[in-house]
Input
Amino acid sequence: MRVGVLTGGGDCPGLNAVIRAVVRRGIKEYGYEFVGFRDGWRGPLENITVPLGVDQVRGILPRGGTILKSSRTNPFKIEGGVEKIKENLAANGIDALIAIGGEDTLGVATKLADLGVNVVGVPKTIDNDLSGTDFTFGFDTAVNIAMEAIDRLHTTAESHHRVMVVEVMGRHAGWIALHSGIAGGANVVLVPEKPFDIDAVCKYVEARFETNYSPIIVVSEGAVPVEGGDMTLQSGELDAFGHVRLGGIGDRLAKEIEDRTGKEARAVVLGHVQRGGTPTAFDRWLATRFGLQAIAAVRDGDFGTMMALRGTDIVRVPLIEGTGELKLVTPELYAEAEVFFG
Amino acid sequence: MRVGVLTGGGDCPGLNAVIRAVVRRGIKEYGYEFVGFRDGWRGPLENITVPLGVDQVRGILPRGGTILKSSRTNPFKIEGGVEKIKENLAANGIDALIAIGGEDTLGVATKLADLGVNVVGVPKTIDNDLSGTDFTFGFDTAVNIAMEAIDRLHTTAESHHRVMVVEVMGRHAGWIALHSGIAGGANVVLVPEKPFDIDAVCKYVEARFETNYSPIIVVSEGAVPVEGGDMTLQSGELDAFGHVRLGGIGDRLAKEIEDRTGKEARAVVLGHVQRGGTPTAFDRWLATRFGLQAIAAVRDGDFGTMMALRGTDIVRVPLIEGTGELKLVTPELYAEAEVFFG
Amino acid sequence: MRVGVLTGGGDCPGLNAVIRAVVRRGIKEYGYEFVGFRDGWRGPLENITVPLGVDQVRGILPRGGTILKSSRTNPFKIEGGVEKIKENLAANGIDALIAIGGEDTLGVATKLADLGVNVVGVPKTIDNDLSGTDFTFGFDTAVNIAMEAIDRLHTTAESHHRVMVVEVMGRHAGWIALHSGIAGGANVVLVPEKPFDIDAVCKYVEARFETNYSPIIVVSEGAVPVEGGDMTLQSGELDAFGHVRLGGIGDRLAKEIEDRTGKEARAVVLGHVQRGGTPTAFDRWLATRFGLQAIAAVRDGDFGTMMALRGTDIVRVPLIEGTGELKLVTPELYAEAEVFFG
Amino acid sequence: MRVGVLTGGGDCPGLNAVIRAVVRRGIKEYGYEFVGFRDGWRGPLENITVPLGVDQVRGILPRGGTILKSSRTNPFKIEGGVEKIKENLAANGIDALIAIGGEDTLGVATKLADLGVNVVGVPKTIDNDLSGTDFTFGFDTAVNIAMEAIDRLHTTAESHHRVMVVEVMGRHAGWIALHSGIAGGANVVLVPEKPFDIDAVCKYVEARFETNYSPIIVVSEGAVPVEGGDMTLQSGELDAFGHVRLGGIGDRLAKEIEDRTGKEARAVVLGHVQRGGTPTAFDRWLATRFGLQAIAAVRDGDFGTMMALRGTDIVRVPLIEGTGELKLVTPELYAEAEVFFG
Output
């Protein structure tokens, strides 16, 4: 049995842990051989392979990123792409393929499975917005990095009677903002799922200053004001050169709060620091277990499935289930954070 | 409504997060008043109270330990203890009591509930061995601390061609060893649930040295050799003064491996470092949600229950369910770690 | 003897450690009394005082920020400011004042000392650009935070064949960039002391991609291109609203590199995360020793001096020496980093 | 020019940073070739070499341990050892040797230099007890790890009204105890340089319990009671089996304090965790600069020297200066810590 492995989409702490677990169990328990495809779907598309054995996966568990590299290549958007992939899989004698990735990568996997390719998927997104699984690996690492930044910013906010706005990742779903905001003791958390009212935000800010503490606002990069919300600086506006402004919602929010409340406000945009580096224990454990179960699914011939965490169990669900629709923050969960607002 | 709160047993990162969430929601949403009882069950027993309001819980979220202090006092082992507690609760006008603790603390809570006291429990143990809940807070912090130590020890092991034995907490259950061992890339993990064969351990050690890497062995403090296992140094043996030896299983195992394999071996006993200090994001989030739901259970008059994590939901289960029997590492889960042995 | 203490300017990890050491030794060894002035020079200017004794300084050693809060108020820019300060010091029976701060705060201290106020200074700046001392506290913490971010970004850069630009603090001096760049293994470090040539930067970027690694560029916020350097996006340009653009050198550099090399480039602006939170061991040790020596200087009547680190000794230098001119990165030190470029 | 490199003695965070800097500058600026000798002096003794070029040193900067491995082999204790080394250096065409190590490794280097071998030394010890240099790399990392452990233990001590004893490295010198004790806010620090009075220690413990806080005692592994100090458990005593007891000074001190004060006391022995893993920014910077200067010393033919930190400069001192006598904690520096006792 020869098994191909690839990683697609944005990098995410834990990818290497998945690869290592797949290879270790595959070789030790099942006697399989492995082929690494580089740069996501570009690997099988352009037949870029790397050796993948016990030696290659030694020592990679604590390392962020992916030894197989990644890309956002989508073979369905390239003419003849799917055929190329089938040819290259055949040429390499691949019996099964393990695809590790997010919505896009698994979306391709889903379609390929329908076309008869033996694919097993492993879900990956630091945003935690894939359906079908309680959590995805990478998310816990991102939340801890954001929380540690918030912890640090509390003291600077208080020393200067200042508002600190922390922009975290999350274009469509507010999971990182919600969890890091709760864990970091934020006074306001803004998520894409619920457009915010700038007046209400400023009221929380002012309420907070009545204590001896200073407000921290955690905002998803995808958060937006309610329609008609009177923000001076709007999303997507152009600068003098006709380009979209570089500043995101964090910068704009800080400026707006400063203008409205007269309190000094500063934004911190955490950016890519959230997705790099060594994974937390939770992410290493989850990623390892996803890997162990993915290769077991290959052995069982259980193709077209994706690994998922349910409670403390790793289960297999149809690929389509994980990629059908985004998992969003519910109003009930958001209400939990609101207890701590102001 | 006046609600008492106490924390019992060993300290655990996240206790303050529970207290804060209980108090914040209780005051803000339900208009309750709170009384803090100090030192676990000793508080209501000896009527030691501390003020507990919004001011007392500010800034405590990231702090380890418990602002209410703790003890291992068991009122059922003290004559007239239960009556004293009832009297003191009445004297303080307490309508309901939230007890945050492990097996012992919640065991007392269970019996008091049977005797008509309005108790709600919040489970706490860094060992993660309470039934009824997927995880307890404090566990994730302990596992991360252990993992970071293991990460550090890998380089020292390799530089010196040396065996490193890491003893972690877990008297009865091997959860910390299992999770930190998997996350840290240990070459052997030994847990109380499965007595170990010292010959097999030494074989793994020797196999590991055939690579360019050096072995790390993670062992629960409660791990024991198989009966008849020929360990020179036995558990519980006395020293020259008739006291039980200070050295635990970690020290003894390192010595034994050194004697048998001729390889230098060193033990590191992580000890109390695992249970102190600031909680991880996961633990702050879980503890906060336990707190929010505990005070909601009080509001609902849902006494005799304990909070539990199931997937991503916080549910209420009968107190007896969480304390009836220990949750142990299953053979299936242990087998997952074994993939990486040697 | 009554001693006033204040902290001015931007917050900096270690301020609380100084305050604690001053108060602990002052009370325990010399029997002094203390008065805390809040918000930097605004405290004595507006007579805002807080109690300052052993109780107030307990537990503050590991905490970032300053319990005395801070501001950038300059009494010499306020009519009658100096007289107000003298009056308020007299009204509070202050015999000596310890001012903890950077160039501005110590500049005021220098002038007040000339006017006969008994002042002792403690230097503080995360930028490390104060003359007269080998290091200032806060700097080591900032460098470690930046280095940890760079460590994380390496994996994300490599997984995506991407350039990562990390903007760190340092308006006038490149110490944080230099030290974190060396410690983080950056491939290019850009500092304010040496205008950069964008062509050379792009050559390093391209050279790096010829290995299996991806480039990380660390840039001080105050770094600038050489005159006539053909950067599309210039410093200080206005946006559609006539405001200075929000994006700093990091954003602009990433865009420029992307345009020129065709390689994807992303910027991370670390911002205020660098100056908040718990200090490193070095900073706690240095700040504590500065505090111990500052109160000893008060006892010795050695006013008009500032504490300074020389090797492993804390010495006293004239205040003017520390504030006379900025300490800049020398060409020799910069050349050390250049060994690793490309 | 062919240059050999070896690392000897206990591992220490920063060794890889030295190796990398030596090789990078040596190849890039001077066009040298390198040979790595494995396992300290055993390498040239038994002619165990490894390739050492730009590829081998990529990515090793943040990694603890040493890619050249280490040992405590001393060629002067092996018959014909020195001749073997000379032969093997000649056989490999080695023009100069860079030896990175502590007292023992540099002691050998000193003697070899006297015998005409072209040696340059780089000092290394986490204990910081080498003369001639302000600091050695590895020390800052060890101190930070110890401090973080102490930070964690504060909360557990307070929650349980308990004494925590933290044993840190330092057989002959108390630098790690002193720095981590000051940085961690310890209530007592015990170092080898000053035998301790157990009565005085217990008085500090009792004084501390009169506040709302609990005592943390930091003790060097080499600390000893004053002669005649009435410790029940003496150093080096034998157990029932005629072996030296496993428990060190930390365990014994905790037991003694518990017996005398009636307060619960627990020991944590940090052990090898202090010397493994990724270096701090300070250590990476210092190690890198030592490496850069060591290869410059080779170029200058400045043999028989050792690199040393003086203030912020790296200077060269005669090898004998660094290894002649241990650098110990002075009474003046110890007195600084005493301000915070009790």
Notes: Chain A touches chain C through 47 residues (CB under 8 Å). The longest helix of chain A spans residues 139-159. The domain at 2-138+279-323 of chain A is CATH 3.40.50.450 (Rossmann fold).
